[in-house]
Amino acid sequence: MQRRWQTFQRYPLLRATLYLLTGLLALLYPQQLTQWLIYLIAIYVAFFGMINILSGLREKSRSNQFGFEMYVGLFLVVIALLILALAKPLLTLATIFLGIFILINGFLRLSQVFELKKMNQPFLPLLFYSVILIIAGFILMFNAITSIMTLVGSVFIFMGLSEIIRSFSLRK
After folding, report:
1. Left if phi > 0, otherwise alpha if psi is -120 to 50, otherwise beta: which for 134?
2. Minimal CA–CA distance to 156: which of 27, 13, 7?
3. Residue 60: how many other CB atoms lie within 10 Å
4. Which of 145, 167, 146, 133 is nearest to 20 (CA)?
5. Inter-residue contact 42 to 83 (CB < 8 Å)
6. pTM exceeding 0.70
7. What is the DSSP letter of 120?
8. 15, 8 in Cβ contact below 8 A?
9. Which helix (H) or strand (E) element contains residue 123?
């Protein structure tokens, strides 16, 4: 496993390809990718829960009492079930709150624009920034899952393109 990770770190074009692929999937299929990630995280947590339960059962057969691993395992299985049941609503709610926060921030910046204009200071860059924040806040509030996955996809595409540029610049 360590060797695979070192290979992945050594090949920037491989990383770039994976980043670009993940970014495109997030942009093209945001709902499906979100659901897939929720399942993947729940399976990961449940897997470690089952390993701890098996370890707890082995401890029971050796010492005739359950070890700490059994309780941790049961807790992890319950967490995995909660992830399956609550992850999407919590993600949607968190994205809506993030949208509200960004919207408020945009309106605060817009009020600063009016103050700068009164003082005859340059205000256009801040006006542009505040309008972008207001639009982004509304988008996040009313299109939560798609918006957050679009943001994630855009970041991954940017990372992939940066890796490609860095790869070619390092070769020169």
Report:
1. alpha
2. 27
3. 14
4. 167
5. yes
6. no
7. T
8. yes
9. none
> Which pair of structure tokens corresponds to residue 154?
């855009």
DSSP 8: H
**Which of 165, 107, 172, 166 minimizes the C-alpha distance to 136?**
107
**For residue 79, what are its two tokens?**
């967490």
In the structure encoding, which two tokens stand for residue 160, read together? Answer: 């992939």
SS3 content of the chain, % helix, strand, coil (to 5): 90, 0, 10
Q: How many residues does the chain have?
A: 172
Q: Which amino acid is at 12?
A: P
Write the CA distances from 54 to 43, 46, 48, 151, integer angstroms: 16, 12, 10, 40
Q: Give the model confidence (pLDDT) of 39-96 as tens digits.
A: 888 999 999 999 999 988 888 888 888 778 889 999 999 999 999 999 888 877 878 8
Helix (H, G, I), strand (E, B) or coil at 29: coil
How far is 41 from 13, CA to CA, in rounded Å?
A: 27
Tokens standing for 47?
């897997």
Q: If you search the block for the tokens 């339960």, which residue do you land on? A: 53
CA–CA gap between residue 16 and residue 67 (Å, rounded) = 45
